[in-house]
Amino acid sequence: FYFNLLTEIPEDTFAGASQLQILELSSNPLEGNLPGGLFRPLTQLSALYISNCEIIDINPAWFWTLGNLRTLMMYWNRIRMLSADVFTPLVNLTTIDIGGNYLNHEIPGGIFRNQPNLLVLYMDDNVIGSLNPQWIQNQTQLLTFVIDFNLIEDIPAGFFANANAIVTVSFWANNLKTLN
After folding, report:
1. What is the per-residue pLDDT across 126-158, written as a single tens digit (0 to 9) for each?
2. In this structure, are residues 45 and 68 in contact, taking their beta carbons and an 8 Å threshold?
3. Do the bridges between strand 144-146 and strand 22-24 make them parallel or antiparallel, or are there none, so unpaired?
């Protein structure tokens, strides 16, 4: 379904597709017009691509049955805020890209607390002005953290304290003035 002109998708569209593993909906002008139960039948889904879809708000119900999801790509939308529990059901998530949105420093601290297997986290191209150490405090397997093109002025002391596995960190084009 990649790169079409879909503006909405009926809730029963994937009703019989319980074995579907990869779903690519990117580059459609959906604007968040996705029913809460749209992905409910997709319990085997391992990758979901809903990037560049003009999504403004994420409906937490989209993810309720996606416990097997490993990759979530939601970059280049218009998302302004994330609720603290939006990603809670995604316990097997290894890669998430929420770059290219309008997210700021008010992203809840424990938003990734239920993703113990998170390896790759992209938060680039947003309007994040400060870092919350809780975003990655329990991410002992995190390998890549990219937060380029934001408004970050400093990195708090101990921000990477528990990120023992990290091999790539990128802070390109921020407003960094100090490293603590």
Report:
1. 999 999 999 999 899 999 999 999 999 999 999
2. yes
3. unpaired
**180 close to 155: Cβ distance less than 8 angstroms:** yes
CB atoms within 10 A of CB 34: 22
- CB neighbour burial string for 118-144, b if at least 16 within 10 angstroms, e if fewer: bbbbbbbbbebeebbeebbbbbeebbb
What is this structure's pTM? 0.96
Mean per-residue pLDDT for 53-61?
A: 95
pLDDT tens digits, 58-73? 999 999 999 999 999 9
168 touches 143 (CB < 8 A): yes
Closest CA to 24 of 47, 46, 56: 47
Q: What are the helix and strand counts (H, E) for the chain?
A: 0, 9
